[in-house]
Amino acid sequence: MRYRHLIPLAACAAGAPAFAAQYLNAEQAQKLMFPEATAFRQQDLALSLAQMQQVEKLAGLAARSVNWRVVGAYSGDQLLGYMVLDDVIGKFELISYAVGLNPDATVRQIEILTYRESHGGEIRLPAWRHQFAGKSARTGGLTVGDGIANISGATLSCTHLTDGVRRIAAVAQVALKK
Amino acid sequence: MMRRAQPWLGTLVDITAHGDAQAEAQSITQAFAEIALVHRLMSFHDAASDISRLNRAAPGELLELHPHTWRVLQLAARMTELSHGLFNIACAPRLVDWQCLPRPGTTESPPYQPAVYRCEQSPMVCKLAPGWVDLGGIAKGYAVDLAVEALQRAGVASGCVNAGGDLRAFGERDWPVAVRDPQAPQRVGAQLVLRNEALATSASYFSARRHGGRQVSALVDGRSGEPLVTPASVSVRAPRCDIADALTKVVLASGDARHPALAGLQAAAFII
After folding, report:
1. Which of A111, A150, A163 has the most B C-beta neighbours within 10 Å, making it the best mutation to test the interface with B?
2. A95 CB contacts (<8 Å, ≥6 apart)?
3. Chain B partners within 8 Å of A140 (Cβ)
4. In this predicted model, what pLDDT tens digit does every residue of B221-260 receive, in sequence order?
5. Which chain A residues in 25-64 lie under 8 Å from chain B, judged by CB atoms?
6. Residues in chain B with pLDDT < 50?
7. Which of B10, B25, B167 is nearest residue A152 as measured by Cβ atoms?
8. Domain hosting residue A76, numbered range
9. Closest to B178 (Cβ–Cβ): which among A92, A145, A165?
10. What is the DSSP pairing of strand B175-181 with strand A150-152?
11. Above 90 in pLDDT, residue A90?
């Protein structure tokens, strides 16, 4: 019987937890992006109005935020690059991710930190999103149902994430490039 | 255990590896490099990819492609044959017209015709007729297989690679998988366990929309070039993910979970 494990779950509709996955925390991501770094320094950015306009022009997208969470990676005094942390909202998913950038503002690596889906309209509610704010992701922690690690389904487009990366590349070009 | 995810192939690719900590991080990096290679070679969006070169080529032109691209094109041709034309990667002009794919340059779409290339001796491919191919229905599966092989080469005992819903698990470990409910995709429609096996799912719930007064989707019936808009979700289990990925379209277009193409490829399908 090939399908002995296939159990239709009609009963698990309302109240069941939505899909979620936790990948890396910020410390793990920065180490993966800059394995040669000896120090990481938080150096958050606040963009000026002129910089915001430049970002919009470069990215072709709304700059969205004045403040950006940035970590500088160093080997001794030498700057190796930056990691910028951000969140994007899709159709029904909230993705926290990190973009590693070289000192010349080119993208080096992208790592997803956490992925969370809402059942329905909650994704648009700040309260739903804020319940996850500042929570550190444990590696490999599975928060879906009974240890379901993987989802199979129609391909979910990640356009909003690639837009987010493009926006960060523009922020780096405008405000971080050496 | 280590689990990482990166955006590739227009979706999120999620890789889990069980092994020693140092080896896990490196092996996952190597597996992502394979995915990135497939992304670069087979992207319809990138004018420098093998696929864009093939699409731009004039009839009669002989092209040398990367062996990976050749293999996927050959498998696609085999799937077209086995499915009597239900599966066809030459449906790209329709996807461009329906704005499911970007228009390459300012060129007008060529008419849809099923036979636009022929695989010669690897890695040569002959363009037969004006037309565009898109590997969206098969390359994710192939990328998953390459990533699994990279993890295995790096000594990872067990793991799972999931490219936006098309996945493959390896090693002596059970992998619980949830299949989205096509009526409510944020919910679980079915649950199963994989071991040393691939599972791919196709459905139109994320791509279906109205265009020019009718419903279209990113899924096409290879015989007619018409969009497949169905409330169903098709999942296929197979030893390899490229085969599972392609077969989902065959089952979706035929509506037959026991399509004859499945058995010969050691695959089985279910529809929800």
Report:
1. A150
2. A87, A88, A89, A112, A114, A115, A116, A158, A160, A161, B12
3. 1-3, 16
4. 999 999 988 899 999 999 999 999 999 999 999 999 999 9
5. 32
6. none
7. B167
8. 17-149+156-175
9. A145
10. parallel
11. no
Q: Which residues of A touch B270 (CB under 8 A)?
A: 3, 6
Find, in chain A, the residue whose alpha carbon is nearest to that of B18: A140
pLDDT at A137 over 80: no
Residue A8 lies in a domain: no
B135–chain A nearest CA distance, Å: 14
Residue B198's closest chain A neighbor by CA? A152
In a domain, A2, yes or no: no
Q: At what angle do helices B241-254 and B139-153 cross, to 10 degrees?
A: 160
pLDDT in tens, B25-53: 899 999 999 999 999 999 999 999 999 99
pLDDT tens track for A161-171: 999 999 999 99
* Confidence at residue A7, expressed as pLDDT on a 0 to 100 scale: 43
pLDDT for residue A4 is more than 60: no
Number of domains in chain A: 1
A23, A114, A150, A152, best to mutate vs chain B, most B CBs in 10 Å:
A152
Mean pLDDT of chain A: 83
Is A12 within a domain? no
In a domain? residue A71: yes
Q: Which residues of B touch A118 (CB under 8 A)?
A: 186
pLDDT digits (tens, 9 = 90+) for A35-88: 999 999 999 999 999 999 999 999 999 999 999 999 999 999 999 999 999 999
